[in-house]
Every structure is written in C-alpha cells, then in structure tokens.
Amino acid sequence: MLLNGKPILMHTIEAFYYSDFKPEIILVLNVDFHTYWEQLCKNYNFSIPHTLIKGGLQRFHSVKNGIEALREESVVAIHDAVRPIVSNELICRSFIEAEQTGNAVVAIKSKDSVRQQKGNSSLALNRDEIYLIQTPQTFQFELLNQAYKQEYSIEFTDDASVVERTGISLNLIEGESKNLKITFPEDLSLAEFYLSQKNKT
Residues 111, 87, 17, CA angle at the centre, nearest 5°? Predict the structure, then answer.
C-alpha cells in the first residue's frame, strides 16, 4: 500500500536509516514477494542499502531467519513494517536502553477502560496496569539468539514474549501514540497526517 505516494515499507526503512544510529537494515519478507519488492525499489528509485531475507511460516520463524544474518555483539531492533511513523527519538532510546540493560520493549499505557471477557461475563481491569506493546523491540544479540533457539509456541505473539520465556525480565520504555500500526483504512489516513506534520518540522 502507498503512503504519501510510495510503499509504506519504504517509509519504515527510511525512519531507521536516517536515524542517529543509522543501523544496518535486514528486511525479512515472504520469498514470494522478493522479486516484487526488488521491482518496487527500481520503480521508486529506492536505494537505501538493506539485506533481503526469506520469511518463515510464522513471525517467530521469520525473526529466527533474520537473526542468522546478524553479527554477534550487536544490538538488534525488530520493528513492524507497518509502523512507518516511528521517531528518531524513540529509535535512539530503544537502542540506548537495550545496550545498557539488555533489552527495551516499547509500550504505551491504555487510555481507555479495559475489560477482560471470561465466558459470558467480563471483568474490569486496572488500566493503570495495562500496557499496549509496540515496536521496535530491541535486544542485545546474545539474549535474542538464545531465546530463538527455543521450539516455536503459539503463545509467542512477539519477540518480547519469546525472550521472556527464557527468564529474562523485560524493560518497558515509553512509546508514542503516533507510532501506530497501520491495520485499517483510517490508520492510513492518520499516518498520512502524521507524516505531513513530521515533514514540516
């Protein structure tokens, strides 16, 4: 899908490439779309250096494939392709926190009341204790590499849950409401607005 005239994924890659940390970029993508992506890069004159890696059956397997292309003693940020408005400030905080403490998981507190469905009834939860998890999720290489040696579990919904299963405590850092995950048509409109505001600064 296009965002302000070019594929969403290109905006996401640019956010990291032009950040202060300017990390090496590894793109994990379904192998059936590799040729299509390479053609898009030509069509949009997209020349940011990146390594293209074959995706897996589940997110877990895709990340595992990406890890195999990494160097040891690195700090690794894993980010959703459809979160293109991630800020330089958030990227930098993620890398710094992970470098110092081992990991950094971006999260924002719920602004809404929260209820948990149980059978035919629901239970009110304390929203001050509820966090909505975003990306990037950033880890020292060794922690991430060890975590992904586990067998896949359906309970692994993100990289934080994989690492946590090894007994590592997660460090939550404050995320940003603008760091939205484009899922519905209205998200695309909101992302276009945020991007236009970002380009004015």
Answer: 150
